[in-house]
Design a protein that fits this description.
Layout lengths: L3 E3 L12 E3 L1 H11 L1 H8 L3 H26 L4 E2 L4 E2 L9 H11 L6 H16 L12 H5 L4 H7 L10
Parallel strand pairs: 1-2
Antiparallel strand pairs: 3-4
Helix pairs in contact: 1-3, 4-5, 5-7
Protein name: Transposase
Organism: Halococcus salifodinae DSM 8989
Length: about 160
């Protein structure tokens, strides 16, 4: 793993080496604190608010990509002159929401939630007949996790059947 994209919560600080904060989460947090955003929203100036937030995104994106380009050259496409690595967690937010919903309890630390996330993660990854016919999940198609990985990460015991 070259780097980890996470939201901007501090619970990741001690356990995630090479952590990069998600651009979208960072900008949402920043927008909540900006007086200009509140003023435009309350005044109903939605077009101006959209333009303001788009400019904020473009500036922050360029800053983040410049930093990531220096640190992770493998994600730079010289031919097209663009960064190809992830800058946000948007691609996994649906799965993230399903895990949080499956947990049913908010956790402030990743370690305490690890065991509780195993069942919803496993359920999500093997929901084969959701619509009445076989289908593979996003994780199944593009991921590298397996049921054994989930089991072993929680400290499960690998059992072998004696003949």
């Amino acid at each position: 793993m070259d780097y980890w994209i996470t939201d901007d919560h501090d619970s990741y600080n001690d356990i995630m080496p090479d952590r990069v904060k998600c651009l979208v989460h960072t900008l949402r947090t920043r927008a909540r604190r900006r007086e200009r955003v509140s003023e435009l929203h309350e005044a109903g100036e939605l077009d101006e608010l959209r333009e303001y937030l788009e400019e904020e995104y473009e500036t922050a994106y360029e800053e983040l990509v410049t930093t990531l380009r220096e640190d992770y050259l493998g994600f730079w496409d010289e031919e097209n002159d663009e960064f190809t690595g992830p800058v946000s967690t948007n691609a996994i937010e649906g799965g993230n929401w399903r895990l949080k919903y499956g947990l049913g309890v908010p956790y402030g630390r990743c370690r305490s939630a690890r065991a509780r996330t195993t069942l919803p993660a496993l359920h999500d990854s093997v929901s084969t007949f959701t619509n009445g016919s076989p289908a593979e999940s996003f994780e199944s198609v593009l991921g590298s996790a397996s049921a054994a990985d989930l089991r072993d990460s929680v400290g499960g015991v690998t059992r072998s059947v004696a003949a």
